[in-house]
Amino acid sequence: MSVLRGVDGCRAGWICASLDLRTGEVSQFVYEDARAMLAGSAGNITAIDIPIGLPDRESRRCDVEARQTLGPRASSVFPTPMRSALDAESYVAACEASFEACGKRLSKQAFAILPRIRAVDAILRETAEVRNSVYEVHPEVCFYFWNGGRPMEHPKRSGAGFMERYSLVDGVFPGAFESIRSAIPRRDAADDDILDALAALWTAQRIASGTAARLPAALEFDRFGLTMRMLA
Predict the structure, then answer these.
(1) Angle formed by the axes of helices 191-209 and 176-183, to 10°?
(2) Closest by alpha carbon to 180, among 197, 158, 157?
(3) Which CA distances in Å does 50 have to 46, 57, 79, 139, 176?
(4) Given this model, what pLDDT does residue 182 score?
(5) What pLDDT does 30 receive?
(6) What is the domain partition of the chain in residue ranges?
(7) How far apart are CA 228 and CA 117, in angstroms?
(8) Which helix (H) or strand (E) holds 16?
(9) Long-range contacts of residues 149-157, Cβ cutoff 8 Å, at least 24 apart
(10) Contact 103, 75 (CB under 8 A)
(11) Span 1-74+116-232: which CATH code?
(12) Lowest pLDDT segment from 54-68, 101-115, 146-160
């Protein structure tokens, strides 16, 4: 293992904050598609903000526990789509598939990232080496544990929310936010995307050291053997 990576979705596709374990340098990459983004994952650790492992009928335990954990930030964790909705080509079709599977319609936020979920799911199902190197995270859950087991006080897109998250990030990765921000146009990634990628990178360090928190504590798998668990 030579590289740790934290990945978040952004306007241009995916933003990756990468830590070279040999030099301690944090660098950034923007990828248009998931296959290019995950091409270098095998043998390293990638912590990514995307649902991994899709349920057939009931909510994933990790989503339920994450919402319970986050309290005032619980709304940032939306229910993971049912697998039957994954290939829907319209919001109406996705809602119908979801309702048939679990009695609930799909949120618009979940529908918006269905292509991303579909792409990552396909890669992980077909490539064991990548599957064993990629871990699901949620930035607000990462920040919760980073903040000493307390949810962020302010929403991430507020000025106060930016500052409280930035203070955590800059304490561990000094200057990394500014370096990434200067390298990536705002049309490609927002400030909170950068902070979220660095939060995922912080968790990648904890995964590597064996100290990451796990939601839920017990392993849960989908029908294709993908782990349904968030780490932080």
Answers:
(1) 130
(2) 197
(3) 11, 19, 12, 10, 23
(4) 97
(5) 96
(6) 1-74+116-232
(7) 13
(8) strand 13-20
(9) 151/69, 151/70, 151/71, 151/72, 151/73, 152/73, 153/72, 155/73, 156/76, 156/192, 156/195, 156/196, 157/192
(10) no
(11) 3.30.420
(12) 101-115
20 close to 27: Cβ distance less than 8 angstroms: yes
CA 168/CA 146 separation, integer angstroms: 7
Distance CA 103, CA 147 (A): 36
Q: Is 116 helix (H, G, I), strand (E, B) or coil?
A: helix
Structure tokens at 179: 């370096």
Separation of alpha carbons 219 and 228, rounded Å: 7
DSSP single-letter state for residue 225: S
Distances in Å between the Cα of 7 and the Cα atoms of 50, 61, 88, 94, 199 are 9, 22, 25, 26, 9
Terminal C-alpha separation, the chain: 19
pLDDT, one tens digit per residue, over 75-99 is 999 889 999 999 999 999 999 999 9
Task: Give me the amino acid identity at 150.
Answer: R
- Which residue in this structure is represented by tokens 């902070």? 195
So what's the pLDDT on residue 1? Answer: 72
